[in-house]
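Hello Y.,

Per our agreement to keep a running log of every chain we model this quarter, I'm adding this entry. I've kept the format consistent with earlier entries: sequence first, then predicted structure.
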Amino acid sequence: MCMTDDDYNMHAFALSHRSAIEFSARFRRLLIKTGGRRAVGAVYRACKVLFRYLSFILDLKVPGPHHMRMTASHPFWQQIDGIAVINLDHRQDRWQEMLAQAAQLPGKPEITRIAACLGKNLPGFGVRPWFRGRKAEQRWAPRAGCMASHRRAMLHAQQAGWKTLLVLEDDCDLAPVMTCDLDALHRILFVEHPEWDVCYLGHNEIMPPAQQVASWGADSNVLRVRGCATAHAYLVRQQVRDWVIDHTPPEDESLWRWLSRNRAIDRWYARVLFRHFSIFALSPAFLLQKTGYSDIGQHLVDWDVMKKKTVAPVNSGFERKLMLAHLHCRFMDAWDLLRGWWKQLRGF
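Predicted structure for the entry above:
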């Protein structure tokens, strides 16, 4: 299914309207703190109209090879410019499973395969100073490949012009999307609360603190959080996409130094992103990983019986607790630096 120019213009206007509302709301809150309400109202309305017009004009560019759009019929997928599925070349079974599940989703969204990086093929693997022939060293290659693979997904999104990206690992189970209230999820994440920069649709642990943003479904909530463990299903805005690319190493020897300090991509996300961006998560986790062999852990994992760790939202003091978490992670940065130095001396 292809979009006509008129369809695309209408879609661009919708996105621009959403951006205008988000920007103007934040601007209004800032002005209220610094001036009278009557003057604030006038400036707010003028800025809202001006920003909506400018963003509409800027968004109406002719589609080219580096500007891709979702062509699914459901509004939820229309807010997402691309879905990147990270998949190793030798795991075509998982890719076929993802294709089969995607074909059954409401709106039938398109998915894009991102060739995952095999850690053992990265420059510097198996040689000093990071590798000394120990058996335990083998588990670091999948971690390196995982980090490089997520960076590949970000680079692909940047080159394709995707402003909002859904990153999925190939063992993510999409079955819950087939039966959920996708209209409600669209309304909460893209209409009522679009202020997130990263939104975890799946995880196995939420890092405190957490603050309830909205309710979704009978027993499900949308939380603002510090971060989450695992990175198999998460939405990313373009500002985070670009920041991650700038703050992670390319696929060369420098990657091992980064890994010695940060250990894994999901751990780094949880310790760093909340310092600069707004992080949301669905609780309990909406999308889980399928039971099977873990290419990172290199063993069988039964996600059905694995204990899922969640956290109770705080009623007050969230910003203060988030600042304390910030200070704690800053302290741990120094410890990570020392551990990285030690691993360089002794190897992984």
